[in-house]
TrEMBL record, chain B:
PANTHER family: INNER MEMBRANE ABC TRANSPORTER PERMEASE PROTEIN YDCV. Residues 71-270, 358-555 form the ABC transmembrane type-1 domain. Keywords: Cell inner membrane, Cell membrane, Membrane, Transmembrane, Transmembrane helix, Transport. Pfam families: BPD_transp_1. It comes from the Bacteria. It is found in: Cell inner membrane; Cell membrane. InterPro entries: MetI-like, MetI-like_sf. This is Iron ABC transporter permease. One of its GO terms (cellular component) is plasma membrane. The lineage of its organism: Bacteria, Pseudomonadati, Pseudomonadota, Alphaproteobacteria, Rhodospirillales. It is a multi-pass membrane protein. CDD domains: TM_PBP2 (cd06261). GO terms for biological process: transmembrane transport. Belongs to the binding-protein-dependent transport system permease family.
Length: 479, 570
């Protein structure tokens, strides 16, 4: 197929090719009308945008953009962030002009790979930083167009029913009471989730950060296949609390698969964790874009007052980067610029994140996604043991539970290895069914064995501790 | 008509006293052995929710790869333990029987020393001596740059178990070598057979029954043992799996019962195989006096080799004792061939913190042993001295306890007595400490019963008849004549039951309900779970070894004295 051929070339050369003719026809049909109406071939009309945003997000933007620029058409290629990175790195699929997504680390990965063209900052009136985070890339490779808070979405009636308090921060999610009430998606399948994983890893440090995630994992009911599945799961009562990006949790109607609506959003609440960070959702122009001029126009549009005002639409529900845009916001709309909280000392290190991007994804899958049931069991026992220990101190059980906790929170890669480029060079999230490199296979097998062995150790230590504690409490050796 | 008359006649001759005793014993065995075991088997075949008959639990067992691996591991460990134990026992047995060897006394003590330390007690000490960073491997690595994985995973279990259990093979094999008719050997030699061929074709087959008896006993013991794998943290074997299922999921989980049935089935299978191997191989000696193989003196070089073998095995056998002793006095012992320094504080800790373990053990073990000799004596008397119908069954049922693993008995007790509320308190009966005593008594009953039967066999019934002729009642005869004459055997039975019950872990660990009721074996297990507890644990272990050692010595003295007295009588 003519995958390597650009859209522009396709357009110029018409529908000559026999192998890619069907797509040629479609592209041509999409562009022919405006192209003939336009003055000439110098300003191609089609701007191709690769994005992870759902249709409910990009459709209104597309409409408004095409209204403001009747001579242009916006073509949207919708895919997951992680898949988008692979696609751009492998130059598979069609050429695109603009990459448009939430996850800053995704942009870092692309920047490091030299795939982004410089883009000049626009006069938007936005400050250079929000909290401590720069809004635009200091190297000028991508621009923030909206802000996202990442956090907790929950169903209040569900929590009431189970007698649970709403969580306030990441740390809270480790609480034993939330066992099997949590839902997340895998970072390897969602850039948003990856960002949250990385945020905690940076907030707490590599080892402690993984310990936090591994303990949170003990409370997981499920790991959904897509990030939208998290809000949907909360809305449908499959679990009570999810981790999601703020726009997915707010207001009505957004967040589910395109075309589907959340059946009952009455009880859904969203909160930014106490130590949350606001990170920009960004837009970048790709190096070698077939339509750089059109790409620039699109970026300008996004950052214009009209484009920013779109962010406030209930079906988009994003936080504009322009502080002046909030004047038109409905009452109660969160304004990150007016927010006092947040961790001002914390600086999300995008370069650090990009250096271990795939490593974190793959590790998370081996340590958490594929081990959910065992993690549930291990942490249930450790938490029960620890709560018994609080009322009945027993040195032997304490040692055993400490061993269990240490084994259950161990991570097979250390912080130095994690950012060693030679270590993670070979790591790639491969498309399904595609072979992975031998080294990656080895590492994954090693991590799998590590995780299995540690969880076995943790399970047996925790079981023994519980027997001792039960007997010490005079309840007999079994539950 | 005649048979009916005979039966009526027999019934008429049944006196109420023995019948009452038999009924009481039968009720005890039924309640505390038959019902729990049948209960376990029953539950294994029951649907968890509906209670209907089903094989699905077994299907689950065979589909689960953890259980299948555990099954394979248990089998492998037991078989390998037999092999290693045979390697230890064969040269020793052959040396003592074939040669004039002054080290024979040494070998005899080799047959006792391991048995006075329950394997699970020595396991932790063995890890410090032979583990990856144990004394031996540290020295090997420093001097030769190699290390031997003695204690890695299953190896550790095999190593510890075979050192502990090889005396079973040694004793049985020695006994059957001793009984070989020398004429057999001489005939073979006359026909031109000698050397290894003589051993392979004549000596070994003749010694086979003893060897098979010892080997199958080792196999069963290792297969059923819970304590050693648990202490060595090897969980993927059957007995630990049964225990872990019950202790982590609860008594409602059918898998614990299914594993129990598999354990019983394998015990029976091993017994059956040994019976099969013995069938038609009754090599009873035709003539007495010429027993045993021809002995010859060792040549000097052979003597050196013989002593080297014996000393090597002696070192291995003493290793757990030495290790445990060192550990109980050690301050810190980690990554070094010997401990950093020595202290008495572990003993102090044990006596101040864990006095209840020791007193509980003394109480439980002596009650259990008392129960054993009372029941043992009664069964022996009923079987040998009365014509009570069905009296043999008491013997059979009591001996059947041999084939019931401790963990199975524990699970059976939990299942049977948890639902029974205790009078007054309303607590489940299974929480009552006396239940633990009953479990220990049932576990040790076969040994006590054999001791009592042997003792009664040696009392001539003419003495009882004389007493009765002088007008003594049956009860008075038993009390004043039979029991005093049996006292040596009864005491020996009591002491062995006591000593082994004191360190029983398999059934105990399932039935311990609260720390204040826990016996020594449980305390030991708990101590050995953490690095900080190893010192006090070892001190408690030394105490246990002293109890068992003293007990063994006492029973030995009692038996020897009895033998000498009888010798004088004749």
């Amino acid at each position: 197929m003519g995958g390597r051929r650009g859209v522009a070339e396709n357009m110029r050369s018409g529908i000559r090719q026999s192998d890619g003719w069907l797509r040629g026809v479609m592209v041509a049909l999409a562009v022919l009308l405006p192209a003939t109406a336009a003055t000439g071939q110098e300003t191609p009309a089609v701007v191709t945008v690769l994005t992870s945003f759902p249709a409910s997000f990009y459709e209104p933007v597309r409409e408004a953009f095409e209204q403001a620029h009747p001579d242009r058409r916006l073509r949207v290629v919708n895919t997951k962030t992680t898949a988008a990175i692979t696609q751009l790195q492998d130059r598979a699929g069609e050429e695109v002009d603009v990459f448009w997504a939430s996850a800053p680390d995704a942009f870092e990965v692309l920047k490091a790979a030299g795939l982004l063209a410089p883009v000049a900052s626009r006069p938007t009136g936005a400050p250079a930083t929000i909290g401590n985070q720069p809004i635009d890339d200091p190297d000028g490779s991508y621009l923030g167009f909206a802000l996202s808070g990442y956090g907790l979405v929950w169903d209040q009636p569900y929590l009431d029913r189970h007698g649970l308090a709403a969580p306030r921060g990441w740390e809270d999610l480790r609480r034993p009471g939330y066992a099997r009430h949590l839902g997340i998606t895998a970072p390897s399948r969602s850039g948003t989730m990856h960002l949250m994983v990385e945020t905690v890893l940076q907030l707490h440090g590599w080892e402690r950060g993984w310990a936090t995630w591994l303990e949170i994992a003990g409370n997981l009911a499920t790991v959904t296949a897509r990030s939208y599945g998290v809000v949907e799961g909360v809305a449908k009562g499959r679990f009570g609390i999810g981790l999601a990006i703020d726009f997915l949790g707010q207001g009505a109607g957004q967040g589910t698969e395109p075309g589907e609506r959340v059946p009952d959003i009455g009880g859904l609440r969203f909160a930014y964790p106490a130590d949350s960070v606001f990170l920009p959702a960004s837009v970048a122009i790709l190096r070698g874009a077939p339509n750089p001029a059109g790409a620039g126009v699109f970026v300008d549009f996004l950052l214009s007052p009209a484009g920013q005002a779109l962010m406030l639409r209930p079906d988009i529900g994003r936080l504009p980067v322009r502080p002046d845009a909030y004047a038109a916001a409905p009452a109660g709309y969160p304004n990150p610029y007016a927010r006092e909280t947040g961790n001002d000392r914390f600086l999300f290190d995008r370069a650090l994140s990009s250096r271990r991007y795939e490593l974190v994804n793959l590790l998370f899958d081996e340590l958490i996604t594929f081990r959910l049931k065992t993690l549930n069991r291990v942490w249930q026992l450790i938490h029960e043991g620890e709560s018994r220990l609080a009322t009945l101190p027993d040195p032997v059980a304490r040692d055993l539970l400490r061993d269990a906790r240490a084994a259950a929170t161990a991570v097979p890669v250390d912080a130095v290895q994690a950012i060693d480029p030679t270590f993670s060079a070979a790591l790639r999230r491969s498309a399904r069914g595609m072979p992975i490199s031998a080294r990656q296979g080895e590492l994954e097998a090693e991590w799998r064995a590590f995780s299995k062995a540690r969880l076995d150790t943790a399970l047996s230590a925790a079981e023994r501790a519980l027997v001792i504690l039960r007997v010490a409490a005079g309840e007999g050796g079994w539950p | 008509m005649t048979s009916l008359a005979l039966t009526r006649d027999r019934i008429a001759r049944v006196r109420p006293g023995p019948a009452l005793a038999a009924l009481l014993i039968a009720a005890f065995l039924l309640l505390f052995l038959v019902v729990p075991v049948v209960q376990v088997i029953f539950v294994a075949f029951q649907d968890k929710t509906t209670g209907a008959f089903t094989l699905v639990n077994f299907a689950d067992f065979f589909r689960n790869d953890l259980f299948m691996r555990s099954f394979a591991n248990s089998f492998y460990v037991s078989a390998m333990s037999v092999v290693v134990a045979s390697l230890l026992a064969l040269p020793l047995a052959y040396l003592t029987m074939r040669f004039e060897f002054r080290g024979a006394v040494l070998i005899q003590s080799l047959g006792i020393i391991p048995l006075i330390m329950p394997p699970f007690i020595g396991a932790v000490a063995m890890q410090l001596l032979f583990g990856r960073n144990g004394s031996v491997n540290l020295l090997l690595r420093d001097h030769f740059g190699v290390s031997i994985p003695f204690m890695e995973g299953l190896n550790g279990v095999i190593f510890v178990q075979s050192i502990h259990y090889f005396p079973f093979i040694l004793i049985n094999l020695s006994a059957s070598l001793k009984n070989i008719d020398r004429a057999m050997e001489e005939s073979a030699q006359n026909l031109g057979c000698h050397g290894f061929r003589l051993f392979r074709r004549i000596v070994f087959p003749l010694a086979m029954p003893g060897y098979v008896a010892g080997a199958s006993l080792v196999f069963i013991k290792v297969f059923d043992d819970l304590g050693t794998p648990l202490l060595l943290n090897v969980n993927d074997m059957l007995a630990p799996q049964a225990y872990l299922r019950i202790s982590s999921i609860g008594i409602a989980d059918p898998m614990g019962y299914v594993i129990s049935v598999v354990l019983i089935a394998c015990s029976l299978l091993a017994l059956w195989v040994s019976a099969l191997a013995m069938r038609g191989k009754d090599y009873a000696t035709v003539q007495r006096g010429g027993g045993g193989l021809a002995k010859r003196r060792l040549k000097p070089l052979e003597l050196v080799a013989a002593y080297a073998v014996v000393l090597l095995i002696l070192v291995l056998v003493l290793a757990p004792h030495v290790g445990l002793g060192l550990l109980s006095f050690a301050t810190i012992w980690s990554f070094s061939p010997v401990p950093d320094a020595f202290t008495l504080k572990h003993y102090q800790t044990v006596f101040t913190e864990s006095g209840q373990y020791i007193t509980n053990t003394l109480l439980y073990a002596s009650l259990a042993a008392l129960l054993d000799v009372v029941i043992g004596t009664a069964i022996a008397y009923l079987v040998l001295r009365t014509k009570l119908p069905g009296r043999q069954w008491l013997d059979y049922i009591a001996m059947a306890a041999l084939a019931v693993p401790g963990v199975v008995l524990g699970i059976g007790y939990l299942r049977s007595f948890y639902g029974v509320p205790m009078p007054f308190t309303g607590q489940p009966l299974s929480n009552f400490w006396l239940i633990l005593v009953f479990a220990l008594a049932i576990r040790r009953l076969p040994y006590a019963l054999r001791a009592c039967t042997a003792a009664l066999q040696q009392v001539s019934s003419s003495l009882e008849e004389a007493a009765e002729n002088l007008g003594a009642t049956k009860l008075r005869t038993v009390g004043r004549i039979v029991v005093p004459l049996m006292s040596g055997g009864i005491l020996a039975g009591f002491v062995t039951s006591f000593a082994t019950a004191a360190v029983e872990l398999s059934a105990t660990i399932m039935l311990v309900h609260s720390q204040s009721d826990a016996p020594l074996a449980y305390g030991l297990y708990v101590y050995m779970q953490s690095a900080a507890g190893r010192g006090p644990g070892a001190a408690l272990g030394v105490f246990a070894v002293v109890i068992v050692g003293l007990g063994t010595y006492l029973s030995h003295v009692v038996i020897e004295r009895g033998r000498r007295e009888r010798g004088q009588d004749h």
